[in-house]
Design a protein that fits this description.
- With 213 residues, the protein is α+β, with helices and mostly antiparallel strands.
- Helix content is 29%, strand content 16%.
- A seven-stranded mixed β-sheet has the order 2-1-5-4-3-7-8. A two-stranded antiparallel ribbon has the order 6-9.
């Protein structure tokens, strides 16, 4: 049901969704951690070739952002909105990890140097952009779209999963009218309050996962 609602949301914005490989979303969802559970640990390589391990950031809140520069929804938020969020919360001691699970067989695939250049050109302030070309980390989190957003608290628990905001469109003008769920959740978390909306419906382009063998 969630998958069907997501695809309908995309079609309303005038952009057809690309279906995930058969059985992949179901398998990922069955085993993925949910809000209120420990966030699955992972080790990935960043665009400079450095290994980054989620567990190394225990004691700090972490935002996970699934990204794909070829996606119109990502481009909408990288006209300043995503960079602003990154700078705002990294300045408050938060770690921000952007994860690219785009398969190397997809036309949207970018190599680590290409992603590094994209990050610099956009003025992105993410702590790191991580490569997940085999899709295993994306599947562990049941990341379905770009951008799909997650918040991990300082104790390593997943406390938010969903969309970046409340208006599922590619229109940049909608950003100012939307409720930004990431800003809302992070502000509550840093103030020591429970996150008032721990889940929301994500929207964006389907993650371009590697096809099952």
């Amino acid at each position: 049901m969630l998958q069907r609602r997501q695809f309908n949301t995309l079609s309303l914005s005038g952009l057809g969704a690309l279906a995930l490989p058969a059985g992949l979303l179901t398998a990922a969802s069955a085993h993925a951690a949910s809000v209120g559970q420990p966030a699955p640990d992972f080790t990935l390589t960043d665009t400079a070739g450095k290994l980054v391990k989620l567990a190394d950031f225990k004691g700090k809140p972490v935002v996970l952002e699934w990204t794909n520069p070829g996606c119109p929804f990502v481009r909408k938020h990288y006209n300043g909105n995503m960079q602003g969020l990154q700078k705002e919360f990294i300045g408050k001691g938060v770690v921000w990890l952007a994860i690219n699970s785009t398969s190397d067989t997809s036309s949207d695939h970018m190599s680590p140097p290409q992603l590094g250049r994209w990050k610099a050109e956009k003025g992105a302030a993410a702590t790191a952009i991580l490569m997940d070309e085999d899709g295993k980390v994306g599947q562990a989190y049941a990341a379905r779209v770009t951008p799909h957003m997650y918040i991990v608290n300082a104790q390593g628990m997943l406390v938010y999963a969903g969309g970046i905001d409340s208006i599922p469109s590619t229109r940049e003008a909608d950003i100012a009218k939307a409720t930004n769920y990431v800003r809302q959740g992070m502000t509550e978390l840093l103030a020591g309050r429970p996150i008032s909306m721990p889940t929301s419906q994500p929207y964006g382009c389907s993650v371009k996962y590697k096809s099952a063998a």
